Amino acid sequence: MVMAERIGYAVYSEIEGGYLVTASPSNYIWDPAAALLYETAAKAWASADRRGPKYAAAVAIVRDNSGRLQHEELPFPMKAAPGSWIVRIEDTGLPLGSLYVTSLSRDGKTRASTEIRDARGFSHEQALELAAQLQNKPNRTAEVEQVSV
User: Fold this and answer.
1) Superkingdom of the source (predicted)?
2) Which of 33, 62, 103, 115 has its CA 20 to 30 A from that of 19?
3) Is the entire prediction scored with pTM above 0.85?
């Protein structure tokens, strides 16, 4: 069986039901042949992020064995490097669900996001230390997770 040929990268929106064909203004068409192509997945993700994380996603445009064009979903790029550790916070007092630590200021204040891809990577020791500090509030748990490759 022959693998599908990757043509390039594009932005797809479930909401719009199509592929981004012009960037400014944003216009979408259902036909992958008309998609605005990017050279790299990173450039497609940057374009998708400008449209909103829940609104659009980067995809790979591929030509299958029969010559038809379609897309394959790409995994979200993580800010944290593979092998690093991220800190996930669960707070039953907040209706947001899981929060991920995105930054830590010099005075110890943390910033967090609901998007796992925004999480900052730490060494295992730093992550465990931070999780222990963050658990000192009622209704809150903090856990560490290793970013997979």
Assistant:
1) Bacteria
2) 115
3) no
